[in-house]
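Q: Alpha-dioxygenase 2, please. Structure only.
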Amino acid sequence: MIHDWVDHMEDTQQVEIEAPEEVASMCPLKSFRFFRSKKVLTGSSDIRIGFLNRRTPWWDGSVIEGNDETGMKKVRTFRDGKLKISGDGLLEHDEKGIPISGDVRNSWAGVSAFQILFIREHNAVCDMLKERYPEFDDEQLYRRARLVTSAVIAKIHTIDWTIELLKTNTLLAGMRINWYGIMGKKFKDRFGHVFGPLLSGLVGQKEPEDHGVPYSLTEEFVGVYRMHSLLPDKLVVRDTTGGRVSRQGSLQIQEEVPMKEMVGTKGERRLSEIGVERMVVSMGHQACGALNLYNYPVWLRDIVPQDTDGQDRADLIDMPALEIYRDRERGVARYNEFRRNMLMIPISSWGDLTDDKEVIGALEEVYGDDVEKLDLLVGLHAEKKISGFAISETAFFIFLLMASRRLEADRFFTTNFNAETYTKEGLDWVNTTETLKDVIDRHFPGMTSRWMTSSSAFSVWDSPPTRPSLVPLYLRPAT
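A: Structure for Alpha-dioxygenase 2:
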């Protein structure tokens, strides 16, 4: 989703970070150079400074569709509304080996695999619409397929991915209420156009609601969406040549590939060797990392960054150091002030943040006794987690606000979420697609029935199926 939403425009001035002498020996890079974020005036006052975004911040599938006119033209076939995909089922590539897709900056093979999946989804919608509406030209098919595919992505993110990230009964109910309303899907389908968002959900309201503030993704949202610790140090590739795996069994490991080999054009070559199906199954069987301190991937500490066209830059960067710098540079509040701004109780000592004595010792070494100096990202990773939450409670507040705002501020999920805009069949496609598993099943028939025993494609695939039992039946995922 980051590849769909956020990429700050850079200035032409480079800056350099140097590691202090006392820790330089432990740093993969003793120093590194990068471009500042480009500052702009955001209003009539010369003190209102903001930053420009290269990507479209809407839920519009720009990660596969493109962020501007040039990017959108590059990915289209201009035949039957479809997007480009190679004959072997992979992304097409230019003469430099860079993939042709909506967003290719700082990408890796896992992102490419999902781009492939949803390009297939877009093209399948085109086929369906062409059969039903033979009079539609390329542009009509393309526009409606983009709307349908984007809505499918938004729905999966809202009621499938998020509830795995925040695995509690309350959040399962809450995120489905966001989409379907408190009375559930059947009520929404029959009476949603009559009742307000509480009963019938945010999607399909009569008009967008921005609460008096033009929609944007805030710097606070960028700050809490820094989740590189989810990435592993190695991709565990599974052997999918065997038979069906039992609920007690597990796919054998074929190889473990260092993540540096999965990044950029090297990662594209690796993906072609592994294959999309084996890549998806392998990712499904590998647990992501925890969003905790001491768990940041080592390979991201001397990584090659890229330009917007996917070409490598000359200077290596230390990603965790750069992330801390970016929050400071863009004026994001430090951890304690951030919590105050959210009307949350600030910490008064390191013991309020964590019970881990090793972490407390490290925090004291870096920040002394001044809890007000604590950087946001460090605090989010050190904070005690609510049971079932992969993210901190502090980050959750921003997640909850922006998850609702992305839906209710968009006319394509409110005013124009209807058969006239999407077509009846397109709207049915969105309404009957509930999970990532549904999309995988559509394009890789038999994959999940053979290799997946979990309830969600966002759970580890060979884990036992689970479903919270305290949620009313009408709010539970469709079976």
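A: Brief note, in case it's useful. The chain has 21 helices and six strands.
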